[in-house]
Specification:
This protein is mainly β. It folds into two domains: about 1-30 and about 60-190, no CATH class; about 200-225 and about 245-280 and about 295-480, no CATH class. Helices cover about 5% and strands about 55% of the residues. Strands 14, 15, 17, 21, 22, 23, 24, 25, 26, 27, 28, 29, 30 and 31 form a 14-stranded mixed β-sheet that branches. Strands 2, 3, 5, 13, 16, 18, 19 and 20 form an eight-stranded mixed β-sheet that branches. Strands 1-11-7-8-9-10 form a six-stranded antiparallel β-sheet, with helices on one face. The protein is elongated and about 95 Å long.
């Protein structure tokens, strides 16, 4: 049966869509065609990578034959393919990723003869001409008889008729293999391959109640499928962690944008083992039921729902080494809680974004800020900044720098902390950079006892009265 395409559909793609060379993720499968996939399992990693395993019942001929697997990922990494079927050995494989589209039909028709059908808008009469396609570089150039004509998208009723679909154009991404079978008959044939275009991340919604000192946290898995193929009724397993990958040529036509690097929110890492299944050093998060991951779809599934976890609001200000300010800076508003089994969320948390809400005077939840989590083991203590405090300020000042010797310096710092709130607050004042270029930094004097947070920082837990101020001074002896 001849194939008909209007000029509007085809010329627009020829002029604007030639960037779709290769078919790729921009194309989708025919929504009306049933999937050729069998029993599908998809393992999705954090780093834009997935393992697809597909077992299909196929009638394989005796001897050497060709088997086609439609509905594989449009971004399949063919070099990662593994094929197995009882009594059959693979000889070679081919991945056909030139997908059927108006622009691809025109590209494949270069040097061929097509039929141009024009309709008179006034009378409705049709005229047909044979035309040879000369080129499709930025537009369609035709030879009709002795004249050369450019096919234009000018709104007039014009169609192009093709006699057939070229053999190397596919309606759906298709993998074909040549096998040598020792017998004929139906049997399970499985393929396994890696593909980009599938990814997942965790998103958390936290409702903080300052009066009760609790937080309710719900965790969502967000799946994204840009691979160009739908995975029907798939058994889906999510792996939290970064698997090692060598640099690979990209088959991805629309890469998933990586998330920004998470901020430092981990006060102390946990030492508790989660009850979740592990694969090597990775935690596994299986979806409870099979699901269809549609092409060009984002899907969310709940994996964590914990109520009434003890939590505390606070303030934190981190100062860099020798950082001095002419005016006061806002402290960070933070929420602190634990992931421990006792008195915490009771789970290991995959990396993602956590968004905080708090109820206003009318009881309606209002958004108060968000932050990034790294992969967090169970039993960790978290301090998550939700934004800058309006009424709580800190002004760091370098009061004196004194050279003691060729290798020793004494630095005196003063920190002015102010609180315009009607209630007292405690600010965690952090001085960083103590391990920047030396290993024997010493706090020679301080007006308030500090706590060594790590090799690079000390912290003072500074109480500041309501509508008041507190001054902290400290003297450091360093090699610089």
């Amino acid at each position: 049966m001849p194939l008909h395409f209007t000029t509007a559909a085809m010329s627009a793609l020829a002029l604007l869509g030639m960037g779709l060379t290769g078919g790729a993720a921009a194309q989708t499968t025919d929504a009306g065609a049933p999937s050729a996939q069998g029993d599908v399992s998809v393992t999705i990693y954090n780093d834009n990578l997935a393992l697809v395993q597909d077992v299909r019942q196929l009638n394989i001929a005796n001897g050497i034959s060709r088997i086609e697997f439609p509905d594989v990922s449009a971004q399949i990494r063919p070099e990662t393919l593994s094929f197995s079927a009882p009594g059959a050995a693979i000889i070679e494989q081919n991945f056909d990723y030139d997908l059927l589209s108006p622009s691809k039909l025109m590209e494949k028709a270069v040097g061929q003869v097509v039929t141009i059908v024009r309709t008179n808008p006034a009378t409705g009469a049709e005229t047909r001409e044979q035309a040879k396609v000369l080129a499709v570089n930025g537009g369609v150039v035709l030879q009709i008889g002795s004249r050369i004509e450019v096919l234009r998208d000018d709104g007039l009723p014009v169609r192009v008729i093709f006699d057939k679909v070229p053999a190397n154009l596919r309606a759906r991404p298709t993998l074909s293999v040549r096998v040598n079978s020792d017998r004929a008959g139906t049997r399970p044939a499985s393929i396994r391959y890696l593909t980009p275009g599938l990814g997942w991340s965790a998103d958390y919604v936290a409702l903080f109640d300052a009066g009760k000192g609790t937080v309710d946290v719900q965790g969502w898995v967000t799946l994204t499928n840009d691979s160009g193929t739908t995975y029907s009724n798939a058994n889906t397993l999510l792996v939290a962690g970064s698997v090692g990958q060598n640099a690979q040529p990209s088959y991805n036509r629309r890469m998933i944008s990586p998330r920004p690097a998470p901020s430092r929110t981990l006060v102390s890492p946990g030492t508790e083992t989660s009850g979740r299944e592990q694969l090597g050093d990775f935690y596994l998060y299986p979806l409870a039921a099979r699901t269809t991951i549609a092409s060009n779809q984002t899907k969310q599934v709940s994996f964590l729902d914990v109520q009434g976890v003890p939590a505390q609001a606070g303030y934190e200000y981190a100062n860099g080494w020798l950082a001095s300010s002419d005016e006061a800076q806002s402290a960070n508003s933070v929420v602190r809680f634990s992931t421990s089994a006792s008195g915490g969320l009771g789970d290991a948390l995959p990396a993602g974004t956590i968004r905080f809400y708090q109820r206003d005077a009318s009881g309606s939840p209002q958004f108060t800020g968000e932050n990034q989590l790294d992969h967090t083991p169970m039993g960790s203590q978290l301090s998550l900044s939700t934004g800058k405090a309006f009424d709580v300020k800190v002004q760091p000042v370098v009061e004196q720098r004194q050279k003691l010797s060729d290798t020793r310096w004494r630095t005196t710092m003063r920190y002015e902390l102010t609180n315009a709130r009607p209630d007292a607050v405690t600010i965690d004042l952090v001085q960083q950079g103590l391990d920047f270029a030396w290993a024997d930094t010493r706090v020679a004097a301080e007006s308030l006892k500090s706590e060594r947070r790590n090799a690079d920082a000390v912290v003072w837990h500074v109480p500041v009265p309501a509508n008041g101020r507190t001054t902290v001074t400290a003297t450091f002896e360093t090699r610089y």
